[in-house]
Specification:
about 325 residues; Endonuclease III, domain 1; about 45% helix; 7 strands; 2 domains; Nucleoside Triphosphate Pyrophosphohydrolase; three-stranded mixed sheet; single chain; about 10% strand; four-stranded antiparallel sheet
Length: about 325
């Protein structure tokens, strides 16, 4: 690099640009380590505009790491409803408990210690250290990876071991020393979100444009082949008795703690569904069909009756099943009762 393109010069350009164009976000307005931790969990695989209302409700309901640690898991999952990827909520809950138990209720500022918390990987550890404590810690999310891949004209797929390693090395090479991690990392991330976008990047207004090595930015970053979408079908029971609805609780890493309509072993023959919808789950697209069903003599151990008028506020539900309840409660409750 020449003098103009030194890390110091690049950080200066980025910082000046961010001070003028950076968005006001609730987790930036009043920086607290706990608020940053919550925002980072919520922002994983979710856009900022979708996270903001959830973040505000969360901080009202669980304003401190202590209140979150003490909350029952069901309350945590219920408040997370709609954000998806519920393992994030469970890990955030576990991380809060670990902060209380192991660190006296105060988040550590060391990325290595942060990385020992449940659900906190290299990116989240660096992001919390940078945003909450102003540490010069590397944090590479999708936005930063895209900026760096284009700026340094990296053609190795960034999701390959070699490409991932090069991106992180480039990110570390741009870091300030001592402090200043908050401004630098925020600016780099914001540049990817607002200017160096996946489609039609605003190269002419980019503060790094004079130094960018990309010859065709829209072709970068390169990634390996995406997993094929797997299509599945769920057949579920609409079982209502005396103003109550039967649900069953899920187990497992991804869906543990969530409630669903009871699943049927097979699709009823010759009977149209009461409701049908399609919802995504990781790289799956699931067609959910709901059929009327008789009440069992006794629910199974993992099943429970919920009052129809309160089930939506009490039970944490996957998006497709919640959609089914919203439609069917209003449509079928009068006839069912």
């Amino acid at each position: 690099m020449n003098a103009l393109s030194s890390p110091e010069a690049l950080r200066l350009k980025l910082g000046e640009w961010f001070q003028k164009h950076g968005r006001q976000l609730p987790w930036r307005d009043a920086v607290s380590p706990y608020a940053v931790l919550v925002s980072e969990f919520m922002l994983q695989q979710t856009q900022v505009v979708s996270v903001i209302p959830y973040f505000k409700r969360w901080m009202t309901r669980f304003p401190t790491v202590q209140t979150l640690a003490e909350a029952p898991e069901e309350a945590v999952l219920q408040l997370w409803q709609g954000l998806g990827y519920y393992s994030r909520a469970r890990n955030l809950h576990k991380a809060a408990k670990a902060v209380v138990d192991r660190f006296g209720g105060e988040l550590p500022d060391d990325p290595a210690q942060l990385a020992t918390l449940p659900g906190v990987g290299p990116y989240s550890a660096g992001a919390v250290a940078a945003f909450a404590f102003d540490k010069p810690a590397a944090a590479v999310d999708a936005n930063i990876a895209r900026v760096l891949a284009r700026f340094f004209n990296i053609h190795t797929p960034i999701d390959s071991p070699g490409g991932n390693r090069e991106i992180w090395e480039r990110a570390a090479g741009l870091l300030p020393s001592g402090s200043g991690g908050r401004l630098h990392t925020s600016a780099l991330m914001e540049l990817g979100a607002l200017v160096c976008t996946p489609k039609k990047p605003g190269c002419l207004v980019c503060p790094l444009h004079p130094d960018c090595l990309a010859t065709d930015p829209e072709l970068l970053p390169r990634k390996g082949a995406r997993k094929a979408t797997v299509r599945l079908q769920e057949n579920a029971a609409w079982c209502v008795s005396e103003g109550r609805l039967l649900l069953e609780q899920q187990t497992g890493r991804r869906s543990g703690g969530l409630w669903k309509l009871p699943l049927l072993e097979s699709e009823p023959e010759g009977e149209p569904p009461l409701f049908e919808t399609v919802y995504p789950f990781t790289h799956h697209r699931i067609t959910l069909r709901v059929y009327p069903s008789q009440a069992p003599a006794a629910p199974k151990d993992f099943q429970r009756w919920f009052a129809l008028e309160s089930v939506l506020s009490e039970a944490a539900l996957p998006a497709g099943h919640r959609r089914a309840l919203l439609a069917l409660i209003s449509k079928h409750t009068p006839a069912a009762s």
